[in-house]
Design a protein that fits this description.
The complex is a heterodimer of chains A (988) and B (431). With 988 residues, chain A is of the alpha/beta class. Chain A is built from 27 helices and 45 strands. Chain A has three domains: 332 residues, TIM Barrel (Alpha-Beta Barrel), CATH 3.20.20.140; 88 residues; 321 residues, Metal-dependent hydrolases (TIM Barrel). In chain A, strands 1, 2, 3, 4, 5, 17, 18 and 19 form an eight-stranded mixed sheet that branches. Chain A has an eight-stranded antiparallel sheet with strand order 22-21-20-27-26-25-24-23, with no helix packed on it. In chain A, strands 28, 29, 30, 31, 32, 42, 43 and 44 form an eight-stranded mixed sheet that branches. In chain A, strand 13, helix 9 and strand 14 form a beta-alpha-beta unit. In chain A, helix 11 crosses helix 27. Chain A is elongated, with a radius of gyration of 36 Å. Chain B has two domains: 104 residues, Roll (Urease, subunit C, domain 1), CATH 2.30.40; 285 residues, TIM Barrel (Alpha-Beta Barrel), CATH 3.20.20.140. Helix content of chain B is 28%, strand content 25%. Chain B has 13 helices and 18 strands. In chain B, helix 5 crosses helix 6. The chains are: A alpha/beta (988), B alpha/beta (431). At the A-B interface, helix 11, helix 17, helix 23, helix 24 and helix 27 of A face strand 10, strand 11, helix 10 and helix 13 of B.
Chain lengths: 988, 431
């Protein structure tokens, strides 16, 4: 690339002054310098009309911008000859000039690898001041400048709290001169990064850590500082008033970050991943300002049909729609600016913006998003962003309108110093020239790219080989075998004039007279006017196969003449009608009529309550386990619900309407759970069932003592230790509670202990992964000691051995129908477990713990008939009313009863039979699944795939660069986030 | 030990139905009387159905199947099966049954060996007839199994066994009858079910295939001219593959891999059985052309891809059947085999004829293995069959009341039923 341009550090550069505190080993240049740029087309800011005028610069700042400025004494004048002038670009989140982060040497993964009175967690480093790490990096800066940037907000790119960023100029001078502001923003991310510490190992762990940090900051003076000095918290508090930039990895992260921010009245500027268009309404509601990247996916190579089917529709669609992201944000009035972050080459920045403009972004907004916008977002608009008096002289000079494809940046002025770029300007020379030479007439054609052709008027043989400069035209002419004519000419009013040495060695004048202009200004205009909006598909919710173009809505339905499994005392009602209105069941009986309801014929079908899965791990982003400590009561699945999991839709097709999303079973005290309804297409917060009692996952046995490998040295290593973990946790929680009651915020608010206090206060309930009778018994004793009940034992495969004790304690059971032999602690498991527990009057449920099994929980309930003869109406309750009771939502769901939520499934056969499948599934009176409509969706998936694949194939023919499907963007993870990628196997 | 104690002990054993102490059942004695099952619905296992039928068997072999009461031998012990359903013993194909007792306890696992080309490895000698697991399968109708080794590129040799035996010799009905080759995947899959990540091309795919080819070339050359001394155990084990006495089972899921595997086998004039074959429905004409049968993986499985039809795993059997492909069903795991019938039932819910679904876990499997004595309820075959009170493919109605393996009426108890009784007795004391 670099051979196509050369860099001139112009005379202004030499005149630029050194920093004032340094001694001078030379003759000192005067500090003041005046530069007047005249005759430019000035785009002073994104809103104003361009105008022809001048800019006066003094000591690196703009003094005046006007259509005419009188030349001041001593000013250096530069004629811009109609070139366009814009403010230089600003990147609001860069890593320029900062040393590459390194991993600390640490031997204990439980402790921070950073020495000193800093945060316990190495990923929290608010004390970092990037300004103190910053050094000018000329080579890197050059790439930025060439791309049009004049200043960046740069930061230390590692960790969760990354400390403060600084604004720097992208000139070549030393740090003293190039630092614009030493603390611009506080930068945070959801990635642990290079921290040598294990915690946090999941996304929910990161969010929990930040939440605790906010509290620690708030109570630092009262609760922490009297006992310990903590520089990290001091700095954390000090930098809260700066703009807070938060880096998101995905559209859903934006919602998560915003939700966290609202808890602490923080408004973040969120750096996004580029797929915001997929959740526009929700993102608009956050009112967050966005920093948007311009990395668009490369086209896929789809010519091998078997490879092509490995690419998900979501990825194909994202390839097509990513360039439209910015335009859609603009259309929805979501405030945003651009960053070049993520681009392979800094130079792609402008091409990508032009592409975004082709896809609907307005040029004004584009200019705003790279100049004034970033300055405003970062509080730098007094300094940068427009061409106005008193601002720094950061400007670019271009040879045409900035967003025209053919325009290039010729100069970039930073702090009043000019850096020049670009290929020598020869386009204007394109044309047809007459040459009268040695009594012959020739015609010379110079193309826009500088290629030359020559023809003689008498058709005699002649060739030309020449090189074209900005102001010169030189080369050789060959007319005969006898030798060549060498010429050197320079530009004149109407062509080129100079001298030539003839074949015989003598000299003669030579003149090329332009008779026709071939330059492209007119052609370029034609191009831009013919640019049409690029075709893009529809946005679906969620943005993937089986997504809906419009979220399904609540309707009134009357299901006629069906067999109703009420799961209430009246059991099965034959030939019955059920009316649902406004999301509720309003009437059950015979011969119901309702003119406002859509009628559904239920003849020969079965209507049951929606299935409730007490133990599920679907719809969770970046880690179901925070495995790193034995007690992680502070983490919350509710922070990381993933609405874009196709298993939601697949499970609706299996009749599931409610899922209890649990933390894994990696540690004795896992995280807080969340309860969702399977509202496919809706956003995470809309899926949550609210309000509901809080639950928390506990776990016992082999998983928590880590018997399956991965031994490590985390306590506990035996069931004996498991008891002590609980005993210790609740003992501490009790002390904590009483101290907090007395001393309030003088005692550090501890989110981990808060969750345990809630358990003891019976506002949070336990669902405990458990297998063998000894540990089940233990936990009930421990609960008795602290005066609470274990709400639910999940798995509970040896529950049949202690069913009487469980009944006395008041615990419920959520089990597998017939699993065993997958580990030692289930070797005594029997498929009659459910029947025995039920027989012992324990509220008994069957759960999935598995995305596949959840699609057929009705069949699992059928096994309760097979093993132990549970009556069929009771067996159905194992997956409906009983889990509702275990989750304390049986007043709303779990049976077909007037007043309850219209969460219903219409089956085509006996619901406990292997032959049954759901025809329709309703949640809150919204039909989220309809087997007939599913066929339509499949067609749509097929057609949409085909449309995009055809497009990709034709693009490849047109020479577009493609990549094999091998490296499509990972939609869920970021590659350097260890531990969030689910490699922690969730063991049952 | 005095006589009285002996007697009491014996009584106790009988009382707890003998399995109680060990978790094992006692293998049944050989059939002595002639048995006639009368009046049930016979699911033949080849797609046919006989209503109100009669099955008679003697010395372990079926001697009569039909509707004519006069064929019942005078001295036959008659079992009234009126209103009941009769099935050939279900066959759990490609299972690690008896090779793995507890999945996470390494000491109980004997299912894979170190090395990549383990053609010589024989699963049968590790098959544990005294596992607790078989009895829990038999009570759901699974009476036969193909015990297959796992791991490596060539896992080794599998054998067919019946599930009521004193030792592996007793159990075996076809020793070392197939070689298992795991075809490399053209793609790499990342993430896990809760969060699948994008798949990518397996860059080592071609190299991995070259390695298999090298082995097969050498084994093939060896088979053409086997040495009398300096025998190569691996190639010796491959002889049967090339002379047609051992089946070549190639495990492959995706279209590309299946096609490559079949064409590879054709180079050695072999017709493989494709095991897993999740994408087989996409290439039925290819499979048909090459006459390749499929041992299909679970119907209770999630689709491979986000965009796939949500019920693709449920309906693949129907798609294969409609295309005329011979297919059987196989499940992963050992204790999981008790759900074999229900996974076949799932096929019916998505369009497959019920008798065809039954064939996919009985007659078709026998056909795939070329076994003439098992798989269907037909004359001259082993009397390996069972009676269920209701439809055995549906968990709602599967109630196995009696079962026969080679004519021997087997014990349908298992340690889980015992534990059930034990604790029901605890919670509901009789006195």
């Amino acid at each position: 690339m670099s051979k196509y341009f050369f860099i001139i550090c112009s005379i202004f550069c030499i005149r630029s002054v050194a920093q004032i505190t340094f001694p001078v080993n030379d003759i000192r240049d005067p500090e003041r310098q005046l530069i007047l740029l005249t005759n430019g087309i000035i785009h002073s800011d994104p809103q104003s009309e361009e105008f022809r005028g001048s800019i006066l610069i003094k000591d690196g700042r703009i003094i005046q911008v006007a259509s005419a400025i009188e030349i001041p004494k001593g000013a250096i004048v530069k004629d811009l000859a109609g070139a366009h002038v814009y403010p230089s670009f600003i990147d609001p989140l860069a890593e320029y000039g900062i040393p590459e982060p390194k991993k600390a040497n640490s031997t204990n993964p439980m402790l921070s690898g950073k020495d000193g009175a800093y945060s316990w967690n190495e990923a929290l480093r608010p004390e970092i001041k990037s300004s103190q790490l910053f050094t000018t990096k000329s080579e890197e800066a050059e790439k930025w400048r060439e791309a049009g940037f004049g200043a960046v907000n740069t930061h230390y790119p590692d960790g969760i709290s990354r400390g403060t960023s600084c604004a720097v100029f992208l000139g070549d001078q030393n740090e003293h001169m190039m630092l614009l502001r030493d603390e611009v923003s506080h930068v945070m991310s959801l990635q642990k990064g290079l921290s040598s510490q294990e915690y946090p190992g999941s996304l929910m762990g990161v969010i929990a850590l930040l939440r605790q940090c906010y509290y620690d900051g708030m109570h630092y003076m009262t609760a922490i500082q009297p006992k310990e000095v903590n520089f990290s918290l001091q700095e954390w508090n000090r930098i809260q008033n700066l703009p807070q930039i938060f880096i998101a990895n995905d559209k859903l992260d934006i919602l998560r970050i915003n939700k966290l921010g609202k808890e602490f009245s923080k408004n973040y500027i969120i750096k996004t991943s580029g797929n915001e268009y997929q959740r526009l309404p929700e993102i608009k509601q956050t009112n967050a300002k966005l920093i948007v990247p311009l990395k668009f996916p490369t086209a896929y190579d789809v010519e091998d049909p078997y490879n092509a089917i490995q690419i998900d529709l979501a990825d194909l669609k994202h390839w097509e729609m990513a360039p439209a992201n910015a335009g859609l944000l603009e259309k929805n009035n979501i405030p945003f600016v651009f960053t070049s972050s993520g681009l392979k080459e800094r130079k792609e920045f402008l091409t990508q913006i032009r592409k975004a403009i082709q896809y609907g972004l307005s040029p004004n907004k584009a200019l705003y998003a790279i100049t004034l916008g970033p300055a405003e977002f970062l509080g730098l608009s007094e300094e940068l962003g427009t061409l106005k008096a008193n601002k720094w002289a950061n400007l670019i000079i271009t040879n045409g309108p900035l967003f025209d494809d053919k325009t290039s940046i010729k100069e970039n002025w930073i702090k009043g110093v000019s850096y020049s770029y670009g290929k020598t300007e020869t386009k204007a020379h394109a044309g047809i020239y007459n040459l009268d030479f040695q009594d012959k007439k020739y015609t010379v054609e110079i193309s826009e790219s500088g290629e030359t052709k020559i023809t003689s008027a008498d058709s005699s043989k002649v060739t030309i080989k020449a090189s074209l400069g900005e102001k010169s035209f030189s080369g050789k002419l060959q007319k005969s075998e006898n030798g060549v004519v060498l010429f050197y000419t320079t530009k004149t009013q109407n062509g080129f004039f100079g001298n030539a040495t003839l074949e015989n060695g003598s000299w003669a004048p030579i003149q090329f007279v332009k008779i026709k202009d071939l330059s492209s200004t007119t052609a370029a205009k034609k191009d831009s006017s013919s640019t049409k909006q690029n075709e893009i598909g529809k946005i679906t919710y969620p943005f993937m196969a089986y997504g809906y173009t419009e979220k399904p809505k609540q309707e009134n339905y009357l299901i006629k003449n069906t067999k109703v499994w009420t799961c209430e005392e009246n059991g099965i009602q034959e030939n019955t009608d059920v009316l649902i209105r406004n999301g509720k069941i309003v009437s059950i009986g015979k011969n119901i009529t309702a003119t406002d309801a859509i009628q559904i014929d239920g003849t020969n079908k079965h209507l049951t309550p929606g299935i409730i899965d007490e133990h599920s791990h679907i719809a969770i982003s970046r880690g179901v386990n925070e495995c790193t400590q034995s007690n992680t009561a502070e983490v919350r699945i509710g922070d990381v619900v993933n609405s874009e999991d196709v298993n939601i839709y697949r499970q609706l097709a299996g009749g599931v309407t409610t899922s209890h999303l649990l933390h894994g079973s990696c540690n004795p005290i896992g995280g807080q759970t969340t309860l969702i309804k399977l509202r496919w297409g809706y956003a995470p917060e809309e899926m949550k069932m609210t309000p509901h009692d809080g639950f928390i996952k506990f776990a016992l046995g082999e998983n928590v003592k880590r018997s399956g490998g991965n031994q490590g040295n985390r306590y506990p290593d035996s069931r004996m230790g498991v008891e002590q973990v609980f005993l210790d946790a609740f003992t501490r929680a009790k002390d904590y509670e009483s101290k907090r009651k007395l001393e309030g915020n003088k005692v550090r608010k501890d989110l981990e202990l808060d969750a345990l206090v809630e358990i003891m206060n019976k506002t949070r309930f336990i669902t405990c992964h458990s297998y063998v009778q000894s540990e089940i018994n233990m936990l009930m004793h421990l609960a008795d000691k602290f005066n609470f009940k274990v709400n639910t034992f999940t798995h509970i495969l040896e529950g049949f051995k202690v069913a009487d004790k469980m009944r006395n304690h008041g615990a419920g059971a959520s089990s597998f129908s017939d699993w065993w032999a997958y580990k030692y602690e289930v070797y005594d498991a029997i498929p009659y477990n459910g029947a025995i527990l039920h027989d012992q009057k324990i509220v008994t449920a069957y759960n999935s713990d598995d995305a596949e099994m959840a699609r057929r929980l009705n069949q699992e309930a059928g096994k309760a008939i097979m093993y132990g003869n549970v009556p069929e109406t009771e067996a159905l309750k194992f997956v409906t009313l009983n889990p509702a009771k275990l989750l304390h939502i049986d007043d709303r769901v779990g049976s077909i009863k007037v007043g309850k939520d219209a969460d219903l499934v219409l089956w085509n056969d006996h619901p406990l039979s292997v032959y049954a499948s759901a025809d329709m599934t309703f949640v809150d009176g919204i039909k989220f699944f309809d087997r007939k409509h599913d066929l339509t969706l499949r067609e749509e998936v097929k057609n949409e795939r085909n449309r995009i694949i055809q497009k990709l194939i034709s693009l490849k023919k047109d020479g577009e660069r493609t990549m094999p499907f091998s490296s499509p963007p990972k939609r869920f993870y970021h590659c350097d986030t260890e531990g969030e990628e689910g490699e922690e196997n969730h063991a049952h | 030990m005095n006589h009285i104690i002996k007697y009491t002990l014996l009584n106790l054993l009988v009382f707890f139905n003998s399995s109680w102490m060990t978790g094992q059942t006692t293998p049944a004695n050989p059939q002595t009387d002639i048995i006639a099952i009368v009046g049930g619905t016979i699911h033949v296992g080849n797609g046919e159905l006989i209503q109100n039928g009669i099955i008679q068997f003697e010395k372990g072999k079926i001697t009569y199947v039909g509707n004519e009461p006069q064929k019942i031998a005078a001295n036959a012990r008659k079992i009234n099966a009126t209103g009941k359903e009769i099935y050939p013993g279900f066959i759990a194909a490609n299972t690690n049954l008896g090779l793995n007792e507890i999945e996470q306890v390494k000491a109980t696992i004997d299912e894979s060996e170190i090395g990549a080309m383990n053609a010589n490895i024989r699963s049968i000698i590790a098959y544990n007839t005294d596992s607790r697991v078989q009895a829990t399968l038999r009570s759901n109708g699974v009476l036969l199994a193909e015990v297959a080794p796992r791991g490596g590129i060539i896992s080794g040799q599998s054998s067919l066994v019946q599930l009521d035996a004193w030792n592996w010799e007793d159990a075996s009905i076809c020793t070392d009858c197939a070689i298992h080759l795991n075809w490399p995947s053209p793609y790499r899959f990342n993430g896990w079910w809760a969060e699948p990540a994008a798949s990518s091309v397996n860059e080592k795919y071609v190299k991995e295939i070259d390695r298999i080819k090298l082995f097969f070339d050498e084994a093939y050359a060896y088979s053409k001219n086997p040495p009398t001394s300096e025998k190569n155990l691996r190639y010796e084990a491959m002889l049967g593959v090339f002379n047609g006495t051992k089946k070549l089972m190639i495990h492959a899921s995706l279209s590309k891999a299946i096609i490559a595997a079949v064409l590879f086998a054709k180079e050695y004039n072999l017709t493989p059985v494709i095991v897993d074959g999740e994408d087989s429905w996409r290439i039925t004409s290819f499979l048909k052309e090459h006459n390749v049968p499929v041992l299909l993986s679970e119907t209770h499985n999630l689709p491979q891809r986000e965009d796939d039809d949500i019920d693709i795993n449920f309906k693949t059997p129907k798609l294969l059947n409609d295309a005329g492909i011979l297919f059987g069903l196989k499940l992963n795991g050992f204790w999981q085999q008790r759900n074999l019938a229900f996974q076949a039932g799932q096929m019916v819910a998505f369009g497959l004829d019920k008798e065809k679904a039954i064939a996919s876990i009985t007659g078709n499997i026998a056909k795939i293995f070329g076994q003439k004595n098992i798989g269907t309820i037909e004359v001259y075959k082993d009397a390996t069959l069972f009676i269920s009170e209701g439809d055995a493919l549906d968990m709602k109605t599967n109630r196995v009341t009696s079962a026969f393996i080679q004519g021997r009426e087997i014990d349908l108890n298992n340690h889980q039923k015992d534990l059930y009784q034990k604790y029901m007795n605890k919670y509901h004391p009789k006195n």
